[in-house]
Structures are given as C-alpha cells and as structure tokens.
Amino acid sequence: MTEPTQSLEPARPLEPTRITRRTLLIASTGISSLGGAMTAAFASSAAADPVPPPSGPFTLPPLPYAENGLDPVISATTLSFHYGKHHRAYVDNLNKAVVGTPLADMSLEQVVKTTYGVAEKTGIYNNASQDWNHSFYWKSLRAQGGGTPPPVLRQKIDAAFGSLDALKKEWLAAATSQFGSGWAWLVLDGDKLAITKTGNADSPLTRGQKPLLTIDVWEHAYYLDYQNRRADYATAVLDKLINWGFAADNLTA
After folding, report:
1. 153-172 pLDDT, tens per residue?
2. Which fold has domain 76-139?
C-alpha cells in the first residue's frame, strides 16, 4: 500500500544571526577562560607525583631543596618534570632490570662500573648511570649558589686553571660543545682538577676520574626555561646555582 502523502509547509528561511560587540566580548571571554583552565590543568599535571614506595633495591633520592627552590634559574615546572618524571623513570627501569640478578645486591656505583661496556647489559648501564648522574647533579646545585669557592677548592682551581673565571670559561665551552645529550663535569684527575664532558649516560666513574660537580646538558634539563639557549642555562647555573661546597666535600672525601 502507498502511504498517504502528507502536506508539508515550506521551510521558513533562517534569520541571520546578529553578531554584536557584546556577543563577541562574551565569546572571547569564554575562550579565554577555557584557555586559562587548560593552562592550569597542564601546570597541575607537571607537578611531580608523590614518590611511591621503592619496588626494588634502588630508590629515588629526595631533592635537597623544594621544587621551586632553584627559581628563577630553573623553574619548578622544569624541576618537577626532570626529577619527578625523567629521573624516576631511570630508577623504575633499573629496578625492573636487576630483579633476581646479582646486580640487585650491588651499590649503584658498582652497577655502573660492572655493566659499562657490556653489550648485553647496555640497558641496565644506561639507567643505572643516569640514576647516579642525576642524583649527583641535584647535589651540584643549590639556591643562592655560585660565588667564591671554599679556600681548599680555590687553591686547586688556581693551580689548574689560573683563575675561577678561566675555569668557568672552560666549563661553559665543554657544556655548549657537547654534541647532543650529555654532561659537563668538574673532576679530580689524579691530583689535578680538570673539566671533561660525557655523552648520553656516561660519566667520569668509568674513566678513573673523581667527579666533583656536574651540569646536565640533556635538553630536558633546560628546554622549558631556555629553549635552545643552552649557553644561557649553563652560564646561569655557573653564576647562580653551582654548589662549590659540594665540590669541596667531594675533594676531601
């Protein structure tokens, strides 16, 4: 059967919407509020999660200062990502890799030295060395750092470099010339101070040198604050954050 045909009224044309200055103002205010909410949500997500109980022999060490303790040279946002995400991942990955092996009973430094150059243990080495490097880096910095080194360290600096300014110039050159990711170090090489740099996860521990201080030049250490201006970041660390007291302690330890 054929359905009865319904009589439809012709559709009424839509009236054009009248856009006033007040309408635009309300809309832009809403968009601005949404953007602010998104920014706040992003900032909230940047905060480091509470440190969970260790799931293996190695633990994420507490920072020696508050997350905003290095502002404005290194922001709380950078520190929360760097420490709470990157460093924590190295610790977690290391714990998973060593479970049930003799490495689980070693110190972190022993794991680094034992796995260095062993092809089948490259993953363990990378995570162990990055854990050690980062733990050392946090102690290499302090709020209101920089300034004049303690006398015992200053004598060594003058003997090796001629002056503190000469040391900082050489250290900055190492930090900025390291291709790609890595670290720039002040070390004790024999009985003399020296500046050296290492790529990726490597450290002076495997070179027979004694680390005294380090600057992390992986991009995640500075990119949120300095973008591609690595030299500005390294200069600010040397002038305002470097912990000469920690170096002096390492020198005499």
Report:
1. 999 999 999 999 999 999 99
2. Helix Hairpins (1.10.287)
CB 132 within 8 A of CB 91: no
Query: Side by side, which strands form the sheet with 210-216?
Result: 192-199, 182-189, 210-216
Its CATH architecture, for the domain 151-252, is 3-Layer(bab) Sandwich (3.55)
Helix, coil or strand: residue 46? helix
Residues 6+ apart with CB under 8 A from 220: 81, 82, 86
Among residues 242, 131, 238, the alpha carbon closest in space to that of 250 is found at 242
> For the whole model, what pTM was predicted?
0.80
Q: Domain residues of the chain, as ranges?
A: 76-139, 151-252
Q: Each residue of 228-246: b (16+ CB within 10 Å) or e? A: eebeebbbbbbebbbbbeb
**Side chain identity, residue 233:** Y
